[in-house]
Amino acid sequence: MTDLRTTVVVITHNRRRELLRTLDRLAELPERPEVIVTDNASTDGTADAVARHHPEVRLLRPGRNLGAVGRNLAVREVTTPYVAFCDDDSWWAPGSLTGAADLLDRHPGVVSVTARIVVEPHGTEDPIVRELRESPVPGPPWLPGPALGSFLAAATVLRTDAFRKAGGFHPKLWLGGEEELLAVDLASDGWWLVYADDLTIHHHASEARDATLRRRHGIRNTLWFTWLRRPVVPALRRTLDLARTVPRDTTSLLAFTEAAAALPWILRERRVLPPEVETRLRLLEPTQRASKARRYTG
Questions:
Q1: Which of 34, 99, 111, 287 suits 250 as a labelling partner, its CA being 20 to 30 A distant?
Q2: What is the DSSP letter of 104?
């Protein structure tokens, strides 16, 4: 069942144990995909452990923590038509990479396929799966699944060339909701993003995470995305909505402060979305307000 259409890209930072588990699972896949790991300047011996235990993996060592841009670095090395992302604490289920590639082969207007996320060790669905499955975004009748307004980098297969053309992940966003900007830029290029319920990725959340920093960056990045791409009135409305709903604590205050400090480059790079893409975002706003799965705002 070897499938040469998809390369798996993983970024990691100081999660040696989790990454080795993920690489073990990826090595067992019947598709036998090429795997590229960007080690974001780990100090726990991650890179050496990968080289020792998984010499078949292409290992990139940029020497500093690039955040999500580590994926961009890896995608430069990809030679397959599709690239599958997963985190260092998640792994694709057998057959799902082939299923995603088949779907993309059959539907040339689809740019990304996001899989169902199963939380380990108990095998339960991640709460966000219901939001994906019940996405309010309208799409053409030929779509093979619900249309999405964004995607989850830890659970998505994309067209390699489209990712590169759109510029990949923005270097300033680093990590935390970094997918949203790339998603709307892909949609602005005429692509559709979909959810596929028959594809699965497993997620065993690492304990080695700074949830406070991730939430701060997530709120900041949401504000940056909003003012980079949304018209003024929706941008104001979204900003006020966030101000009302995020926790009133130091983390949120720092996020808003960082977002405001970036106003000069935000204005330089601001490019308002086409009306049809903006309409999709407006349809998503009620879901975002009610969501209990969007961890960076709660």
A1: 287
A2: H
